């Protein structure tokens, strides 16, 4: 079975972790500081604060922005529950908005309708590696938290994502763009906000008491992160190569391939197809041919919260499917995926039906 996701770990990564392990300095120290500096330089912002997970990064970032009881935070429905958890951990109220049909990203128009005087921030995940419309979302008049968990290295109007919002957050979970096992980071240009995150991530040796958290990254994780960061450009190039191969296969079937918005350069964290109907039967047929595919979002937030509406998120949840795409895929595995697509996809996605679908209006659908 070709797994849906798989990290790329090589001998260099292992040597770097072993080096730190043998040094005896396992907890947060110099490796973490170096990782923070190099990540800030890569994204193009003033500074960064490494933490224990992407969820912790979101939580502490919201706290630094002052989000708490009585405040609201705008979030897209079509995203994993880590975003919802972070808002609730901060004590704020999540306000769920729908997504754009062409990119699966937060709809600025729908978000604008939901802004109130209590809106403290908007969380903007760049879904599946495709940049959101940062111009439109930045015009909402509330602080933007860019979520780079799926998009590290992507660009909007030629500039790397992560440098547009008040803060940006990363996840370094095992299957993200680069991996430290677990781990995350808050990045930005406002040193006051970064200092607040830095204070909140550790609870010991403080002059004054307040509620803080044990959210530090270890030097072991940071050493792996530094090694992975050196390979990130290659990871992105390989993802784009695989996306091109899949696109050729789709066009060979007479089907349009997913594409990027005109102002965005995606990193292809996921390769997402939108089918004519429910994704379940396609996923099962591909599994029988040795290829694991998944719904790219397990369940949209409006379903967790029992909210109605959100038609575009609902359609995306029902019909979108993610096929394997990651740097560790071998040429033989890619060929297996392509052969399975040629056999299975025409029964679930037709060019004729494409014209009638509300999703995929910018060739995001097959």
Structure characterization notes:
The protein is an alpha/beta fold and 366 residues long. The chain is 39% helix and 14% strand. The protein is built from 13 helices and 12 strands. The protein has helices spanning 11-23, 30-43, 54-64, 82-89, 108-113, 134-138, 191-200, 219-252, 280-288, 301-304, 311-319, 331-344, 351-354, and strands spanning 47-51, 72-76, 93-97, 119-125, 144-147, 155-156, 159-160, 167-171, 184-188, 264-265, 271-274, 320-323. The strands form 3 sheets. Strands 1-9-8-5-4-2-3 form a 7-stranded mixed beta sheet, sandwiched between helices. The chain has a 3-stranded antiparallel beta sheet with strand order 7-6-10, with no helix packed on it. Strand 6 (155-156) and strand 7 (159-160) form a beta hairpin. Helix 3 packs across helix 7. The longest helix is centred in the middle third of the chain and has 34 residues, at 219-252. It is globular. The two termini are 24 Å apart.
């Amino acid at each position: 079975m070709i797994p849906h996701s798989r990290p790329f770990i090589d001998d260099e990564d292992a040597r770097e972790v072993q080096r730190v392990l043998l040094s005896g300095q396992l907890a947060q120290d110099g490796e973490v500081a170096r990782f923070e500096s190099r990540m800030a330089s890569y994204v193009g912002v003033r500074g960064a604060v490494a933490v224990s997970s992407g969820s912790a990064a979101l939580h502490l970032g919201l706290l630094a922005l002052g989000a708490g009881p009585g405040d609201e935070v705008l979030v897209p429905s079509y995203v994993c529950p880590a975003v919802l958890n972070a808002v609730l951990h901060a004590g704020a109220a999540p306000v769920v908005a729908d997504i754009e049909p062409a990119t699966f990203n937060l709809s600025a128009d729908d978000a604008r309708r939901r802004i109130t005087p209590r809106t403290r921030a908007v969380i903007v995940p760049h879904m599946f590696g495709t940049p959101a419309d940062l111009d439109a979302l930045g015009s909402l008049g509330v602080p933007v938290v860019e979520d780079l968990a799926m998009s590290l290295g992507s660009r909007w109007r030629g500039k790397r994502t992560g440098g547009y919002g008040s803060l940006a957050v990363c996840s370094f979970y095992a299957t993200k763009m680069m991996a430290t096992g677990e781990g995350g980071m808050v990045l930005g240009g406002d040193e006051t906000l970064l200092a607040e995150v830095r204070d909140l991530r550790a609870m010991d040796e403080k002059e004054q008491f307040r509620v803080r958290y044990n959210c530090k990254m270890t030097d072991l994780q940071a050493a792996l992160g530094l090694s992975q960061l050196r390979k990130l450009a290659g990871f992105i190039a390989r993802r784009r190569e695989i996306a091109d191969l899949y696109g050729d296969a789709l066009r060979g079937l007479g089907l349009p391939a997913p594409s990027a918005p005109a102002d965005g350069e995606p990193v292809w964290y996921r390769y997402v197809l939108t089918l004519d109907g429910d994704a379940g039967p396609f996923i099962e047929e591909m599994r029988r041919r040795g290829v694991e595919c998944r719904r790219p979002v397990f369940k949209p937030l409006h379903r967790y919260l029992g909210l109605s509406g959100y038609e575009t998120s609902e359609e995306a949840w029902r019909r979108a499917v993610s096929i394997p795409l990651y740097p560790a895929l071998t040429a033989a595995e890619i060929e297996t995926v392509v052969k399975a697509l040629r056999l299975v996809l025409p029964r679930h996605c037709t060019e004729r039906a494409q014209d009638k679908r509300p999703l995929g209006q910018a060739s995001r659908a097959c």
